[in-house]
Every structure is written in structure tokens, then in C-alpha cells.
Write a structure and sequence with these properties.
heterodimer; A: about 110 residues; mainly beta; five-stranded antiparallel β-sheet; five-stranded mixed β-sheet; about 0% helix; about 55% strand; B: about 110 residues; seven-stranded mixed β-sheet; four-stranded antiparallel β-sheet
């Protein structure tokens, strides 16, 4: 059974800093891994999707990396802004058995102006 | 496109009542799914569908029913609500290309069972 861990659970940093969010997963048999953003009381918005054959994906100030063999992914946010404050969730899509996304419990990020 | 829509946004039920949470998407996605989100537990898959007429159970299906009569709609039925079903429910959809699919989520339904 896939298990996903995100560390830290919460993070506060001053505006303008670069930061890294971590995600680890136990089963490397995945199609892809997605990073999502969730604002309080809202649904999830997909930020980046990394295919199993890829090492990283970039979108604007966001860069996600994937090391499937070690079961790790990181989300790098450059030049953080107060609008980046949200909960960030990672979710690998398993390619074995019941194909489904398994979510971590997320990292709650607060950017201090 | 409206994307993925869910109704209602909020609902309060009494134990034993039944109700249907509605989900619709206008992106012609084959794959649709329902998740529940509880504090400290992440999102967990309830049921999913890979196309009209095809549904299957996820991780926590007990107490819920689904059907998929059209590509656009995927309602979730609570047969006899229990306090343990108090949660936030999210519907999601995507195409079936496993390598590249992005999942699109609805805004959620916050359900309280008294």
C-alpha cells in the first residue's frame, strides 16, 4: 500500500526567500506524481505533474523534482510571495492494482510579508 | 468551461438521513472520482469511474453508492448518514492518459452529520 509523507507539516518563511517542500512515498511503481495547492476552504489546484520518466518540471517560480528510485519528490519555490501561502499536497499515481492518487497530509506554508 | 462543479457547498444532515452529492464536469473527461478529506488523514478515495456505466470502489467505500449514467455526471449517494461521514467531499476528473493526466478538482462539499 502506497504511503506518502510530507515534511514539514507547517513552514513559515519571510517573503522573498527560496524554500523547499519535501514529499516521500513508499512504492516506486507510479505513473506520475502531482503537486497540488489548496487554499483554506477551497478545492485543490494542480501545480505540476512529473511523469515517471522525468526528473523535473518547472512552471514559473515553481520547480518540482522526482527521484522515483528513492521515493522522493521536492517542490522548490523561488522568491516566495504572500500569495504563495497555502497548503501544498503531493500525490503519486500508482500503476499497480487499483490505480489511484495517494495524498500526503500536506505542508501548510505561510509567507510572512 | 465551468470545470468541475459540486453541489451543495454545505449540508447538515441528521443521523440516518440520505442525500446525494452532485458532481458534474464539462471537459469530456473519462475518469471521475470522489474523495473525502479529514483533518490529519489527507484525501482518501471513496469511489471512482473510468467511463459511463463503469464504477469501482476506492479505499473507503462503505456507506456510499455511486453511478455513472453519463460522461458528465458522477453523483455520490449517502444511504444512511452517520457522524463518521462528517467530512469535506471532493470530486475530481481527468482524461485516462495515465502518464500525463492532470486531475481537476471541484470546490468541495462540506458535510456535517449530527
Amino acid at each position: 500500500k502506497q504511503e506518502v509523507t510530507q515534511i514539514p507539516a507547517a513552514l513559515s518563511v519571510p517573503e522573498g526567500e527560496n524554500l523547499v517542500l519535501n514529499c516521500s512515498f513508499t512504492d516506486s511503481a507510479i505513473y506520475n506524481l502531482q503537486w497540488f495547492r489548496q487554499d483554506p476552504g477551497k478545492g485543490l489546484t494542480s501545480l505540476l505533474l512529473i511523469q515517471s520518466s522525468q526528473r523535473e518540471q518547472t512552471s514559473g517560480r515553481l520547480n518540482a523534482s522526482l527521484d522515483k528510485s528513492s521515493g522522493r519528490s521536492t517542490l522548490y519555490i523561488a522568491a516566495s510571495q504572500p500569495g504563495d501561502s497555502a497548503t501544498y499536497l503531493c500525490a503519486p499515481l500508482s500503476n499497480f492494482g487499483n490505480e489511484k492518487l495517494t495524498f500526503g497530509t500536506g505542508t501548510r506554508l505561510t509567507i510572512i510579508p | 468551461n465551468a470545470g468541475v462543479t459540486q453541489t451543495p457547498k454545505f449540508q447538515v444532515l441528521k443521523t440516518g438521513q440520505s442525500m446525494t452529492l452532485q458532481c458534474a464536469q464539462d471537459m469530456n473527461h473519462e475518469y471521475m472520482s470522489w474523495y473525502r478529506q479529514d483533518p490529519g488523514m489527507g484525501l482518501r478515495l471513496i469511489h471512482y469511474s473510468v467511463g459511463a456505466g463503469i464504477t469501482d470502489q476506492g479505499e473507503v467505500p462503505n456507506g456510499y453508492n455511486v453511478s455513472r449514467s453519463t460522461t458528465e455526471d458522477f453523483p455520490l449517494r449517502l444511504l444512511s448518514a452517520a457522524p463518521s461521514q462528517t467530512s469535506v467531499y471532493f470530486c475530481a476528473s481527468s482524461y485516462r492518459d495515465r502518464e500525463t493526466d492532470t486531475q481537476y478538482f471541484g470546490p468541495g462539499t462540506r458535510l456535517t452529520v449530527l
